[in-house]
Write a structure and sequence with these properties.
The complex is a heterodimer. Chain A is built from 13 helices and no strands. Chain A is mainly α. The chains are: A mainly alpha, B mainly alpha. The interface between A and B is large, with 99 and 104 residues.
């Protein structure tokens, strides 16, 4: 073993491995893990980040009890769940549909794919602000187009507490459906042709081929896309904050937006850290269960 | 009619139908983007007219408003001024205003460039080193470390923003370019390591072994043989890191204010008289989108791998 290393000049492989990995690990520990540990520690105190002189006091599980017992927090969770569920359902259906169509390999396919993908490359905050313009009840294009097809009169997508939760679903779906589409497309392209040839020999109908070949093959890819989108949307902040900033009232105040209010407007660092930990554990828990289910489906 | 097609090929009718639906979707989905670009070329009045104007007289008012600060002046004062020196002064003058100075946009945009390129360079460089080590050497707990690197993307940015805010304040990194470069580098590192490891796994080990037999050290082989071979992967990774740092908002809005603020928190705050100045916001958005659009076109072959952390390959 030793002679194999010595054969070449310069540093040993082991030294190089550690020199190469250490900067990355140090940075991750300093900027990612340290803040996380810090947040977990603060979640057991009554710390206020804007009161510098005051020593934080250890309060045990008080913050957690307060959060879990608060009706308001469950409302935020419901709003988040509404947002996550509907965006996932819509993006799964439209994304898969588009992928199936694009898989027909017509001319100009690649160009169209590139153009369709554009919305998801934009800055969510900038997207948020320009959709407030499109949604404007007086001069917005969205309202004009809707009224063109059916005359609803003046309606305010962002100002009404029944419509606002849907307005954020629409924008997120517009922006991120291409993501599901791309991944489904990769799944479809990975299906070997001989499977369809065999089905054709067995005289399976197109519908049977779709149910027994296409769908099972593309499902793991679709589930992967939904996992990524689910995690992202659970912690959604930038798009919605610019679009509605949680309003009207608190109709679209997602968990992350509430967290920002508690942490950076009320400066309740201890309390908001506890909320952050709860969110993190929720994402992690859901994510783990989901991955287990996903692997089971894949193995089948 | 082509009668020799295999039963697997979609019929020409279904193909045409698919193409039609896709084109309709493409047009609908691009309307919001085209609308904002069109708005950037409208005058303030035309941007808030109803019904929305599809055909309008183009104006550069949005771009002028984006780059300048202006103040409204009484007609007598305007009459007493010397005639406008150039077209944009004239345009502002015709709105009964005078230019009082440049706006912050150029500063914000160049912050975006500095922080974007700085963070991209650092994360690709450090990511390439780590990826090479994970790809070629026996590292203890390799899978755990790789998963740890990925999981750092799972917690909400707001959750770590408070501790980072406090830490940066102590270290003097708050609202500085360096602080933001380090922060974005770290957020990007997970993606960079995962992607680059995938690309490096595909480079045959024999290449660098041959170089080492020829007398290169391991380090020389890495820089002179492996890195050039991984160039496509490095370019793709760089563009993804750039897109993230370019578009990032949550950290920028919470941790920067005057000195190091990037364009995304700035653009939504461009205010004209009586509310948001839509042509100027449109202009800012358009200028901000151009690099990303170019990236998307350059990137299209690597898109999938990048957005899924290398999980899906084409």
């Amino acid at each position: 073993m030793k002679s194999a290393v010595k054969k070449f000049k310069g540093l040993s492989d082991k030294a190089i491995a550690w020199i190469f990995i250490t900067p990355t690990l140090i940075l991750l520990l300093a900027i990612n893990i340290y803040p996380l540990v810090y947040a977990i520690r603060m979640s057991f105190t009554n710390f206020y980040a804007n009161k510098i002189g005051r020593e934080p006091k250890f309060v045990g599980l008080k913050n957690y009890k307060k959060i879990l017992g608060k009706e308001e927090i469950w409302e935020k969770m419901q709003i988040t769940a509404h947002f996550v569920c509907w965006t996932l359902v819509l993006q799964a259906l439209i994304g898969l549909g588009l992928a199936l169509l694009l898989n027909k390999k017509f001319k100009g396919n690649e160009l169209l794919t590139t153009l369709i993908v554009l919305p998801m490359m934009l800055s969510p905050a900038v997207v948020g602000v320009f959709w407030t313009y499109l949604y404007n009840p007086q001069v917005g294009l969205f309202n004009y187009v809707v009224n063109f097809f059916y005359d609803f009169g003046v309606f305010d997508m962002l100002g009404s507490s029944t419509l606002a939760p849907w307005s954020i679903v629409i924008v997120d779906t517009w922006m991120w459906t291409p993501f599901t589409m791309l991944i489904c497309l990769a799944g479809l392209r990975s299906i070997p042709n001989y499977m369809y040839e065999a089905a054709e020999v067995d005289r399976a109908s197109k519908w049977q081929q779709f149910i027994h070949i296409t769908l099972p093959s593309v499902l793991p890819f679709l589930l992967l896309a939904l996992l990524f989108r689910g995690i992202e949307n659970f912690k959604m902040f930038d798009l919605v904050v610019e679009l509605t900033s949680g309003g009207p009232g608190s109709a679209t105040e997602l968990a992350s937006i509430n967290l920002k209010r508690e942490a950076f407007e009320k400066w309740k660092t201890g309390y908001s850290s506890a909320f952050a930990v709860i969110l993190f554990v929720t994402i992690f828990g859901f994510g783990n269960v989901y991955v287990k289910v996903m692997n089971k489906i894949k193995d089948r | 009619m082509d009668t020799s097609r295999s039963p697997l090929e979609p019929s020409s009718f279904s193909r045409k139908l698919a193409a039609t639906i896709i084109i309709v979707y493409m047009v609908v989905t691009l309307i919001p983007i085209s609308w904002i670009v069109a708005t950037s070329f409208k005058s303030v009045d035309s941007a808030i007219s109803y019904p929305p104007e599809v055909f309008f007289e183009p104006s550069l008012e949005g771009y002028v408003n984006l780059f300048t600060n202006r103040s409204r002046q009484p007609q007598e004062y305007l009459d007493s001024l010397p005639p406008p020196e150039n077209w944009y002064q004239e345009l502002v003058r015709s709105r009964e205003m005078v230019i009082t100075g440049p706006s912050k946009f150029v500063g914000r945009y160049s912050n975006s460039l500095i922080i974007g390129f700085g963070a991209t360079f650092l994360s690709v460089f450090l990511g390439a080193l780590a990826a090479y080590a994970f790809s070629r050497f026996k590292v203890p707990l390799k899978d755990d470390l790789m998963f740890f690197i990925l999981s750092t993307r799972m917690f909400p940015p707001i959750a770590v923003a408070v501790p980072i805010f406090i830490m940066y304040r102590k270290l003097g990194l708050g609202d500085t370019h360096l602080g933001m470069i380090i922060l974005y580098t770290v957020v990007n590192l997970s993606l960079a390591v995962w992607l680059l490891k995938g690309f490096m796994d595909e480079i045959p080990k024999e290449y660098e072994e041959a170089a080492m037999i020829d007398g290169y050290s391991r380090l020389q082989a890495f820089f002179k043989v492996v890195l050039p071979q991984a160039m496509t992967g490095i370019a793709a990774t760089a563009i993804f890191c750039m897109i993230f740092s370019w578009n990032e908002y949550a950290f920028a809005v919470l941790l920067t204010q005057f000195n190091a603020q990037t364009a995304p928190p700035f653009i939504p705050t461009i205010i004209g008289e009586g509310g948001l100045d839509w042509p100027a916001i449109g202009a800012g958005t358009t200028l901000f989108l151009i690099p990303v659009m170019i990236f998307t076109v350059v990137l299209r072959k690597h898109l999938l791998r990048g957005i899924t952390f290398g999980a899906v390959r084409k």
